[in-house]
C-alpha cells in the first residue's frame, strides 16, 4: 500500500500533516509534501487512511496494489 499526493489539488488545508506528521510535511507555503512515498508499514496505514479521509480536496489517495 502506497500513498499518492496530487500536489495540483492540494489547497494547503494542513490536515494531512497535522494528523499524520510521519507521512506528510509541508512546504514554505503550507502545501503538503509526501515524505513517505514508499510501501507503508502496517503501523503507518491507519495514519494514511486518516489523512485520506480528512483532506477536503481529495488530494490524497491510497494505492492498495
Ligand atoms: Fe493539502 Fe489536503 Fe493536506 S489540501 S495540505 S493534502 S489536507
Give me a quick take on this structure.
The protein has helices at residues 15-19, 42-54; strands spanning 2-5, 24-26, 32-34, 60-63. By secondary structure, it is α+β, with helices and mostly antiparallel strands. Residues 10-16, 31-32, 55, 57, 59-60 line the site of FE3-S4 cluster.
Bound molecules: FE3-S4 cluster
| Class from secondary-structure proportions | alpha+beta
Sheet-strand content, in percent, reads 15-25%
Assign an overall shape.
Answer: globular
The string of secondary-structure elements, in order, is: EHEEHE
Report the average pLDDT across residues: 97
Number of strands: 4
Rg calculated over all Cα atoms: 10 Å
Task: Profile the largest sheet.
Answer: 2 strands, antiparallel
Please tally the helical runs, counting DSSP H or I stretches of 4 or more residues. Answer: 2
Separation, N- and C-terminal Cα atoms: 6 Å
Unreliably modeled segments: none
How much helicity do the residues have?
25-40%
Q: How do the strands line up in the largest sheet?
A: 1-4
Tell me about this structure.
The chain has 65 residues and is α+β, with helices and mostly antiparallel strands. The chain contains 2 helices and 4 strands, in the order E-H-E-E-H-E. It has a two-stranded antiparallel sheet with strand order 1-4. Strands 2-3 form a two-stranded antiparallel ribbon. It is globular, with a radius of gyration of 10 Å. FE3-S4 cluster binds at residues 10-16, 31-32, 55, 57, 59-60.
Amino acid at each position: 500500500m502506497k500513498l499518492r499526493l496530487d500536489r495540483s489539488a492540494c489547497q494547503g488545508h494542513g490536515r494531512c500533516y497535522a494528523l499524520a506528521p510521519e507521512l506528510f510535511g509541508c512546504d514554505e507555503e503550507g502545501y503538503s509534501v509526501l515524505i513517505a512515498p514508499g510501501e507503508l508499514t502496517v503501523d503507518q496505514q491507519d495514519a494514511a487512511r486518516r489523512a485520506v479521509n480528512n483532506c477536503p480536496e481529495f488530494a490524497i489517495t491510497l494505492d492498495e496494489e
